[in-house]
Amino acid sequence: MTLFDAIIIAVVEGLTEFLPVSSTGHMIIASSLLGHSNDTFTKIFEVSIQLGAILAVVLVYWKKFFQFTNPLFYAKLIAGVFPALVAGYLFNDAIEALLGSELIVAIALLLGGIILVYIDRLFPQNTTPDLLAAETTRSELVEADEQLTFKKAFFIGCWQLLAMVPGVSRSASSIIGGMQQKLTRNFAAEFSFFLAVPTMVAASGYSLFLKNWTEEGVEVKGYEIIFATQENIQAFAVGNVVAFIVALLAIRFFISYLKKYGFRVFGIYRIIAGLVLLGMYAMGWLG
């Protein structure tokens, strides 16, 4: 993978990680178009650069993340991430097999887009204070936080499992899960951001340090493949930095846009992207 390819994939990751359009699906398509769809390092790279994007959440919401006087916040995150940890461990091979299919990405983008076009009609408009808003009072934040019970956090985590199918979108599934659990739109989105941190840290840690990858007939760890060449190290480092910077911008844009306009435009984009990718697949340009 060239440094240019790494930057392109990292920009795609940073832009799409927190938008309801599927970052994994977009990275799979980008990697395929760049000619890296079957490369082991690329598969590791696509998972591991999510660490950079996740750090953007920690920075933007640092007051919330490092509020150690509220241990219930961390306990709710654990309840939310638990389903993904169990399912990821049990079905890792099946999930990895799905990650190699551009056709599944195209179909998931299309079907998910249809759902997002109509999802705003099913739920009331947002009334919960934005955790990023300067005018939000402490009592309002406490009230918003109390909306999220352990039961709701767990069920949102179950909704997040849908994103194990590439193209579904972790962000979209967890936000819709939050809204289904009676959370308002922007608070559901913000909890989706919070939930991404332990989810992606666990996924990246497994990919880098626990999973055995096969490289030239030999089983190696992900971090060994990264450190195998100077080019891999450079791509990994630059990719995480680029994903972090782009994700910082995407988070603030998404919350602001979601409060005003909802999901419809993202649904329309997904439908168009899905149809275009299906056409490209049919003509043999993908897969």
Total separate domains:
1
Largest sheet: 2 strands, antiparallel
CA distance, first residue to last residue: 19 Å
> What's the helix count?
15
Strand order of the largest sheet: 1-2
Radius of gyration: 18 Å
Let me know the average pLDDT.
Answer: 87
Which range best describes the helical content: under 10%, 10-25%, 25-40%, 40-55%, 55-70% or over 70%? Answer: over 70%
What would you call the structural class?
A: mainly alpha
Element pattern in H and E: HHHHHHHHHHHHEEHHH
Low-confidence stretches: 132-136
**Beta content:** under 5%
**Strands, total number:** 2
Which descriptor suits the 3D outline?
Answer: globular
List the main descriptive attributes of the protein structure presented here.
single chain; 287 residues; mainly alpha; two-stranded antiparallel sheet; 15 helices
Task: Tell me what you see in this structure.
72% of the residues lie in helices and 3% in strands. Residues 132-136 have low confidence and may be disordered. It has one domain. With 287 residues, the chain is mostly helical. 44% of the residues are buried. Strand 1 and strand 2 (218-221) form a beta hairpin. The chain has a two-stranded antiparallel sheet with strand order 1-2. The protein is globular, with a radius of gyration of 18 Å.
In short:
The chain has 287 residues and is an all-alpha fold.
Which secondary structure elements does this structure contain, and how are they paired or packed?
Elements: H1 3-16, H2 23-33, H3 40-48, H4 50-60, H5 62-65, H6 71-90, H7 92-98, H8 102-119, H9 138-146, H10 150-160, H11 170-180, H12 185-210, E1 212-215, E2 218-221, H13 222-226, H14 230-261, H15 264-282
Helix pairs in contact: 1-2, 1-14, 2-8, 4-12, 4-14, 6-10, 6-12, 8-15, 10-11, 11-12
